[in-house]
Amino acid sequence: MSTQAGIPLIPDQSVQGTVSVELKDVPLEKALQMVLASGGFTFRKMDGYYLLGQAVPQNPSFNLLTVSRQIRLNYLKAKEALELTPEAFKSFIQVNEETNTLTVTASPDILERIQSDLRQFDRPPRQVMIEALVTELSDAAKRNLGIDGTWDWATTAATAQRTVFMSVMPVND
């Protein structure tokens, strides 16, 4: 591939294995994605060459193969977001509880996956709006309206009849 593309492809020490594939008229970066994905490898274009390897923290090339992004959460606490993250991705995430942010250092593909997952988790909580109308009606007014559901509340002078009407409506989905 390196010879055909005319650009050096440099594998780090983590790259092992054999892949056989026949590709025609495929751009270099797409071909690299196809060939490297099966072994969990990634690549990064450097100054005049491509570095190939595994973007895992134990790899000495980790800093060269990864990018970092700080993600500020709006509704979810950073520690809760980390708990919701799949176990395989937790080693790429650092939590800052003071600023409620996550710093993700991973390959671009894994970074995009983590961001996508976080967008699914970090949503406003469901809310319900409750409206209540409290009215006081005389016995005659209640008979005229045909209202029978009343609550008796004691007042200092006498017992007053009050009727409560309530409605519950979802505010957001």
Describe the structure.
The protein is of the alpha+beta class. Helix content is 27%, strand content 30%. The strands form three sheets. A three-stranded mixed beta sheet has the order 1-3-2. Strands 4-6-5 form a three-stranded antiparallel beta sheet. Strands 7-9-8 form a three-stranded antiparallel beta sheet, with no helix packed on it. A hairpin with a 4-residue loop joins strand 8 (151-154) and strand 9 (159-170). The two termini are 50 Å apart. Mean pLDDT is 84; it is low at 153-161.
Write a short abstract of this structure.
With 173 residues, this protein is α+β, with helices and mostly antiparallel strands.
Question: Secondary-structure map with pairings?
Answer:
Layout: H1 2-5, E1 9-11, H2 28-37, E2 42-45, E3 50-53, H3 62-65, E4 67-72, H4 78-84, E5 93-96, E6 101-106, H5 108-121, E7 128-136, H6 139-145, E8 151-154, E9 159-170
Parallel strand pairs: 1-3
Antiparallel strand pairs: 2-3, 4-6, 5-6, 7-9, 8-9
